[in-house]
Amino acid sequence: MPLTDIAIRRAQPAKKSRKMFDGRGLYLEVAPRGGKWWRFKYRFGGKEKRLSLGVYPDVSLKEARLRCEDARRMLTREIDPSEHRQALKAARVQEASNSFEAVAREWLAKHTPTWTPSHSSRVISQLERDVFPWIGGKPVAAVTPSLLLSVVRRVEQRGALETAHRVLQNCGQVFRYAVATGCATHDPSTVLRGALPPVKGGHFAALTDPKKIGPLLNVLDGYEGSLIVRCALQLAPLIFVRPGELRRAEWSDIDLEAAEWRFAVTKTGTLHLVPLSRQAVEILRELYPLTGHGRYVFPSGRTPNGDRPMSENAVLAALRRMGVGKDEMSGHGFRAMARTLLDEVLGFRPEFIEHQLAHVVRDPLGRAYNRTAHLPQRRKMMQEWADYLDRLRAA
Q1: Where residue 366 falls among pLDDT bands split at 50, 70, 90?
Q2: Positive or negative torsion for Cα 250, 251, 252, 258
Q3: N or C: which end of the chain has fewer CB within 10 A?
C-alpha cells in the first residue's frame, strides 16, 4: 500500500534499519536512531542501485514522489540518476573553483608576498567591497564587458572615479591571470578602455614660500590635541617621509643614540635610512615615555596597548582643524616643501635630496645607489634643514 503522512509520522525506530515502501522504487528508510531518509531503488546496466532523495520531514512525501518520478524519467532516457547527480556536483565544484572570487584570491596569493602591506590591503579591500558582491560568484569566463562595466560604474557613481579606474585595472589583472591559467579565454576589461572618464591629474598641496612656512610651523607647535598627533605634526616637516611611513614608524627601527631611522620604503620595499636631526631626536625623546612601551611611535588613540598605528587621516584632520586649508598644505606637501627649499634656498645637490626622499637615484652606469650613499652629506643636510626651519619659525 502507498505510504501516508500519518504512517510516516507514526513510524518508530527499531534495533535495525527498516524500510517502508511507497511503490515504483520509492521507500522510506527508518534508522535505529529515528532518522528517516527517502531512497529510490532502481536497476541500471544490470546492477541494483540506490539514490538518496532527502530527509523527512524536510522532504515531504509529495516532494519525494516528484523526485522519484524525475529519476525514473532519466532512466527512460538511459541516464543513470546517480551518475547524473555526481556530474552536476562536479560541475558546481568546478564552477566554484573557477569563480571570479576564487581566481582573484588565487591571484592575490601569488602577488601579495611581493607587495607592501598598504598596497595589499588596499587592493583586497577594493575587491571585497566593490567587486566580489556583484561578480564574485560568477564563473570568471562568464563575466562580460557590460557586466564588468556595471561594476566599475557603481564605484564611479559614488564619486570615487580614481578608485573606479583602480578597480578596473585590478580586475584586468585577475582576468589576465585567468587566461594564463586556462580558466578563461579573454580579458573583458580590454574593451572598456575609455569607458570611464579620465582622472584629472593634480599635485599635493604644499607651501614653498619661506615667508608662509614660518607661520605654518608655529601653528603646528600650537596644536592643542593629543601629544601623539602634535609630535607627528612637528616631526613631519623635519624628516619629510611619506605620510604612511610616518604613521607606521616603529620604535624598533629607530636608534636615538645613533640618530637614525631605518625602515622599508612603502612603494618599493627597499631599505631606507633617515638621519635624524637634533630637533627630531628631541621630539622622539619627548614622546618615548608615552608610546615607547608599544610597537608604534604614533599609535592609534583607540588602542592603548599601541598595536595599531595612527589613522591615515589623523595628521590631515589636525591640519584642517587648525585652519590650514586643503589648497595650502597636505601630509604629502612636506616632501615637496623640502625638495624645493633644499635645492633653491640651501643649495644641496639634487641627488642628495632625491635619495633622502627615497626616490630611485642611479649613477651614470644605471645602478641604484644603496641606502647609505652620501650618508655624511645627508646627515649634514638634515641638520641644516632643521636649523633652517627653526630660523623660519623664529622670523
Answers
A1: very low
A2: positive
A3: N
Give one DSSP letter per residue of 114-168, joined into a string: GS-HHHHHHHHHHHHHHTHHHHTTSBGGG--HHHHHHHHHHHHHTT-HHHHHHHH
The CA distance from 38 to 21, in Å, is: 10
Residue 119 bears catalytic tag:
no
267 among known catalytic residues? yes
Entry pTM: 0.52
Decide if 293 is catalytic.
Answer: no
> What CATH number is given to the structural domain containing 13?
3.30.160.390
Residue among 41, 105, 369, 379 flagged as catalytic: 369
Residue 157 burial class via C-beta count within 10 angstroms: exposed 0-12, middle 13-18, buried 19 and up: exposed
Nearest to 339 by CA among 240, 260, 242, 245: 240
Q: Per-residue pLDDT tens for 13-48?
A: 888 999 999 988 999 999 998 899 999 999 998 899
332 is catalytic: yes
Give the count of domains, the chain.
Answer: 3
The answer as to whether 143 is a domain residue is yes
- Is 166 catalytic? The answer is no
From 166, 248, 332, 355, the catalytic residue: 332
238 and 325 co-located in one domain: yes
pLDDT band of 59, cuts 50, 70, 90: very high
Same domain? For 225 and 310 the reply is yes
pLDDT single digits (tens) 101-136:
999 999 999 988 877 777 788 899 999 999 999 998
Our answer to whether residue 359 is catalytic in this structure is yes
